[in-house]
User: Which sequence fits this backbone?
């Protein structure tokens, strides 16, 4: 696996940083989570599959000492806190990179290390709002509607992973680590570069809900079928549009692509309601019209295309994507089916690996510097 041998130390937090750890783990890195007592984000616990966990009281001086030793032996550190928290703990990059010059110190937060909002809390909707991109989402003459938790993972987690891997490549050249400062607001803005640079074009130059790619056109939209399900239409180019109209059984002269958008939408909507989603899928699967069924999450692994590629797997009957991209020589392996690390369950093992004796470990347990939960979950 491409990241085999890299040791990652992840400070527990909400979903974006754990997902960074999951991606690195799926492609071979050894990931250890530093967790606080009685802190378990149940809705993100599935991101802890295949990781190890050590329970440390970071308010205890000996807890800080243990953490410093762990960082000194790490290749990559993942930090999810607001600016200044790690510095107050004595674990900031200046201190730790002096002890470990090869350390790649990755910081991921909402707004960045400085600026008016740096110390403020936020969620996906707030970061999208500040980036400007939220203004683009939603129907015509309606309020902005955020996509489901997209920016935290695309603009946050994946941009952070990209920065970490670039730092790993640079370290092979220079032998030195560096700070990777990722924040969700700027990351999402970067991911949305094409949208932001298309504001004056025919693609994205009109008001929300009136553009080429936001449902403003009848040939790029979703349509309800006879059975209450949906089909997605992306027939942008004339050749695809012609195939689309033929597949519907309509006359191209009656629904010209660049005229009568609203009446064409009504004609097409009424046509789609004549057949079920399966019937329409059977028709368009044999045509190059950019028309596909809108699949529900619990059925995506059953679709013939996805099933053939083994794009998904199931854990406890929940559909989970396999690692992407697929590498021909060193593919990733999903950590989804590996035991989920419970807070502090590997504490003793990890301390032994960095030289603590059984007597020292027992004392640390007794003074509540560390803790251990032996119950792992599948």
Assistant:
């Amino acid at each position: 696996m491409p990241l085999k041998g890299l040791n990652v130390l992840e400070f527990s937090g909400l979903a974006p940083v754990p997902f960074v750890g999951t991606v690195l783990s799926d492609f071979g890195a050894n990931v250890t989570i530093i967790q606080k007592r009685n802190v378990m984000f149940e809705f993100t616990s599935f991101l802890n599959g295949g990781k190890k966990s050590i329970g440390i009281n970071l308010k205890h001086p000996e807890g800080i000492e243990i953490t410093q030793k762990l960082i000194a032996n790490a290749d990559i550190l993942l930090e999810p806190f607001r600016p200044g928290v790690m510095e107050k703990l004595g674990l900031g990059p200046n201190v730790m990179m002096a002890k470990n010059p090869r350390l790649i110190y990755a910081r991921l937060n909402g707004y960045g290390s400085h600026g008016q909002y740096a110390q403020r809390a936020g969620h996906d909707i707030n970061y999208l709002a500040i980036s400007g991109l939220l203004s683009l989402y939603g129907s015509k003459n309606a309020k902005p509607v955020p996509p489901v938790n997209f920016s935290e993972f695309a603009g946050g987690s994946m941009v952070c992973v990209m920065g970490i891997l670039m730092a790993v490549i640079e370290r092979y050249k220079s032998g030195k680590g560096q700070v990777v400062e990722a924040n969700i607001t700027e990351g999402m803005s970067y991911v949305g570069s094409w949208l932001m640079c298309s504001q004056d074009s025919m693609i994205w130059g009109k008001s929300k809900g009136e553009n080429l790619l936001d449902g403003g056109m009848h040939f790029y939209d979703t349509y309800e079928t006879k059975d209450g399900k949906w089909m997605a239409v992306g027939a942008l180019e004339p050749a695809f549009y012609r195939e689309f109209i033929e597949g519907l059984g309509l006359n191209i002269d009656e629904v010209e692509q660049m005229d009568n958008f609203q009446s064409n939408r009504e004609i097409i909507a009424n046509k789609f309601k004549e057949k079920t989603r399966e019937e329409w899928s059977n028709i368009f699967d044999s045509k190059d019209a950019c028309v596909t069924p809108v699949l529900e999450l619990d059925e995506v692994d059953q679709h013939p295309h996805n099933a053939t590629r083994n794009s998904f797997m199931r854990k406890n009957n929940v559909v989970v994507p396999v690692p992407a991209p697929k590498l021909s020589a060193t593919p990733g392996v999903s950590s989804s089916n590996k035991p989920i690390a419970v807070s502090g369950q590997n504490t003793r093992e990890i301390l032994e690996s960095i030289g603590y004796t059984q007597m020292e470990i027992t004392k640390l347990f007794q003074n509540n510097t560390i803790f251990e939960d032996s119950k792992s979950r599948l």
Observations:
- The longest strand covers residues 30-35.
- The first helix runs from residue 16 to 26.
- DSSP finds 14 helices and twelve strands in the chain.
